[in-house]
Write a structure and sequence with these properties.
about 240 residues, alpha+beta, Ubiquitin-like (UB roll), Alpha-Beta Plaits, binds iron/sulfur cluster, binds FE2/S2 (inorganic) cluster
Length: about 240
């Protein structure tokens, strides 16, 4: 049984088991800290920084989803400095990514009075929607690079490693090895990546086609014909001398 750590959150005395994150300790006393990249069933990587809090004596703001509680800590979760940081993060996100399918983040934009037009020269990514399989589409114009899909595809759940980060810097995005179409990867179409995606960047193909205004007949035709094509392709013998 881990010993309890004693700290203060927004002036309130809190006890939390050693090893708890600030996020969990705060939640245990009803103090909710906003999160974006964090997911209860994924490994936290502290990527988006929306969960930053102010820890007395610390030079920089601290990401609550990864930082552990320490004895005697004094934490402010909603100070002006914290709110200003969150507002800026949200503005930069909204200025460069299509968040139209991310209602939770949209609510944060309102809560923090974010003004994405403060960054009029921000470059947006606008890659084509990828439709390379009958099950789901990938719309990376909506991707915030939270890494959840990569993690559930790997050690957090599925151990299939079909996707990962590709590219560097501004060109970083989620991709497959050698940019191969999904049916040519190790993907088993479990759907877990879609389930954890917070922005609609990954979406069931049927849902996406409905949103495009396609009729039920057309949706059946489009998804079934692709499925047949995939089956045909995967049952063909591999060419002599190596894989695809
Ligand atoms: S596709 Fe979705 S889950 Fe994957 S990194 Fe982008 S936003 Fe996150
Ligand atoms: S939620 Fe903590 S860094 Fe993203």
């Amino acid at each position: 049984m881990p010993e309890d750590i004693h700290l203060k959150i927004n002036g309130q005395a809190v006890s939390a088991p050693a090893g708890s994150t600030i996020l969990k300790a705060a939640s245990s006393v009803g103090v909710e800290i906003p999160t974006i990249c964090y997911h209860d069933y994924c490994t936290s990587n502290g990527l988006c920084r929306i969960c930053v809090v102010e820890v007395s004596g610390a030079r920089t703001l601290t990401p609550a989803c990864v930082a552990k509680v320490n004895e005697g800590m004094e934490i402010q979760t909603d100070s002006p400095r914290v709110r200003r940081a969150r507002k800026t993060i949200l503005e930069m996100l909204a200025a460069s990514v299509d968040l139209s399918d991310a209602p939770d983040i949209q609510a944060m934009l309102v809560e923090y009075q974010a003004q994405p037009d403060r960054y009029p020269d921000a470059q947006t990514r606008s890659p084509e929607v990828i439709q390379d399989n009958p099950m789901y589409i990938r719309d990376y114009a909506k991707c915030i690079l939270c890494w959840r899909c990569v993690q559930v595809c790997a050690e957090d759940a599925q151990f299939t490693y079909a996707i990962n980060f590709s590219g560097r810097g501004y060109r970083t995005q989620i991709g497959t090895f050698f940019n191969r179409p999904i049916p040519e990867t190790t993907c088993v179409f479990c759907g877990q990546c879609i389930g954890v995606c917070p922005t609609g960047a990954l979406k069931p193909k049927k849902q996406w086609l409905m949103e495009q205004g396609q009729t039920t007949d057309e949706i059946m035709r489009l998804t079934r014909s692709q499925r047949r094509a995939k089956t045909k392709k995967t049952t063909q013998p591999a060419p002599e001398g190596g894989a695809a």
